[in-house]
Amino acid sequence: PTWWPLATQIAEIKANAGSEWINIANVIIDVEIPGINWSRVKELADALEHEGKQVDTLYTARWFWTGHMGDSRAEQWLRFGLWVAQYDGFPSLDNVALFGPWGPDDLIGKQYAGSTDLAGHTVDLNEFDESFAKEEDMNDADRTWIKGEIAALEERLRGGRRSLARYLATGAIT
Asked: 29-30 and 107-118 as β-strands: parallel, antiparallel, unpaired?
């Protein structure tokens, strides 16, 4: 592919983040573009770290890694933990089919469902290792935002456990 120059890519990332850029501490690199390689990922990670961001996780899928990355097992990839796309509907890290150089201790999270309606919003469903995104590692803005989102969801589901169970079973809030 024809890649954007690195400076353009960083500018686009900042533009997409908008005013939240200053609040973002950790940036995860999505490795799902045919033609991507170690050099390009490393260059982007280094540039983001130069911007003051933590870049220690890759998001990718087994089908992509084996089909486009040759199932690379090169140890240099262990610079990053793995957040895997494995749409199996199971919210557990116990059944992840690992690939590349990553072992169980390198697994950060799993996206187990995509494009799911949750209270009128389309979200992807993920399960993360308890060591990922601990509250004590968050800044005040992140904590405030998350608490607000949880409060809003609780308000939408205020009908109690039956409404929550009904929502989880049918996707409908009553």
From this structure: unpaired
What angle do helix axes 38-50 and 6-17 make, rounded to 10 degrees?
60
Instruction: Flag whether pLDDT at 153 surpasses 70.
Output: no
Per-residue pLDDT tens for 51-103?
Answer: 999 999 999 999 999 999 999 999 999 999 999 999 999 999 999 999 999 99
Handedness of CA 14, 50, 109, 163 (dihedral sign): negative
Q: CA-CA distance, 168 to 174, in Å (whole number)?
A: 12
Alpha helices, DSSP H only, in 18-126? Answer: 38-50, 62-68
Listed in sequence order, the residues at least 6 apart from 88 whose beta carbon sits closer than 8 Å to its beta carbon are 95, 112
Cβ atoms of residues 78 and 40 within 8 Å: no
